[in-house]
Amino acid sequence: xxxxxxxxxxxxxxxxxxxxxxxxxxxxxxxxxxxxxxxxxxxxxxxxxxxxxxxxxxxxxxxxxxxxxxxxxxxxxxxxxxxxxxxxxxxxxxxxxxxxxxxxxxxxxxxxxxxxxxxxxxxxxxxxxxxxxxxxxxxxxxxxxxxxxxxxxxxxxxxxxxxxxxxxxxxxxxxxxx
Length: 178
Known about the structure:
This protein is an all-alpha fold.
């Protein structure tokens, strides 16, 4: 039996563990774009700006209520801007306080919300793009309608979706990799 004794080979005592006897878990570094990071805040801010621009541009035209796809775009852009603004505020709070937003409930809420809002804004942008092409190219009614405003609002909705998609994918990946 070859066992060393403390009197022969002194060893320092291990550091005290946290309550419950569990050592703190070591996490990987947060990836920029995830909730609670500067990259995530920038993505949320861009989502908000593009959705708010799409909403404002479409709402300033007088004849958008006559087309259902444009009404859907206004509703989807409004929902996207509210969702992105609220999560940007949560990101600002987490960054200022130094909180981590990587627990299961928060990430699953962000992932589901991002999935729903990004799907809605994408569907609304596609529907509005189809109607805009119909009005402009097929019917030739651009002189009577606000084609430039419709196209700009549709482009802003697509840009909002392009910035919402990385947020959804990062949150979903974080959720799936647990």
